[in-house]
Amino acid sequence: TDQSDYNKHEDSLTNNLVHVKNPHLDTMEEDILYHFNLGTKTHNLPEMFGDIKFVCVGGSANRMKSFAQFIHQELALPGNIDDIRDICEGTDRYSMYKVGPVLSISHGMGVPSISIMLHELIKLLHHARCHDVIVFRIGTSGGVGLAPGTVVVTDKAVDCFFRAQFEQVVLGKVITRSTVLDMGVSEELLQCSSELNNFPTVIGNTMCTHDFYEGQGRLDGALCSFSTEDKLEYLRKAYDTGVRNIEMESTVFAAMCYACGIKAAVICVTLLNRFDGDQITSSHDVLVEYQQRPQVLVAHFIKKHLGLI
Length: 309
Ligand code: R2B
Ligand code: URA
Fold this sequence. Notes:
Belongs to the PNP/UDP phosphorylase family. With 309 residues, this protein is α/β, with parallel strands linked by helices.
């Protein structure tokens, strides 16, 4: 159609489009984003999402709803925060909220859960012809040698061998992808934190594991095959390679965004210092306040980019 030719032309004028790297998609008449309960035939994705500039993802559905309400207030948008609806209410896999140019989505826990979400998110941004999008993961983590409540902006996302790469098994073979994040965005986030001056923020490597307990060297799981000394030696090694926090999604998040040409950053608050223990003992209220810190940082970044401050 004329409209779609026009859109293609317009898109070719801007370089920062979201790139899907899959030739098969072009041959599909319809694309169903199953876990979002959205599709190219059932929904007008350019109309629904075409103006998105910032995507914030985080593990918990409730936290991402709170973030949507918070950013609505911060951007002083018209309307009532109680009217912000879950776009994915037809499925309980993920929750999604749109507030002006900001999309807030939950991704569940761990690499498989976030990678399914990211496949569908990146296709959604592509179908909606979004451009100049920045994606943030705002999450929680275990700190390595940091006071609880410290916010870590990720320099390199590394695997459990401290390598800045993500390995995916495809057709029985291991594919390795680089986990580069956008240094410009990370440095701007650090700048935001010094402007806010509300809580400690550092830049450091983030280690991504496939388990919360043994996989993160915890002694308090249902299984444990190592000693306290083994644990501390591993954390010391991690610290010496630049690791400052541990979580469960950063490598695949960085790898998929980088491969698709999307600027991305990871901002996680530390809930405890793993050199001091494994259990998360802070009160509910303290944990809630900690989890708002990455949200406050990203909100400040977004407001600056929109020229609101
Ligand atoms: C941080 O917190 C979750 C585990 O408690 C996991 O999703 C992560 O990366
Ligand atoms: N999330 C993690 O993955 N690890 C922690 O220690 C805390 C939160």
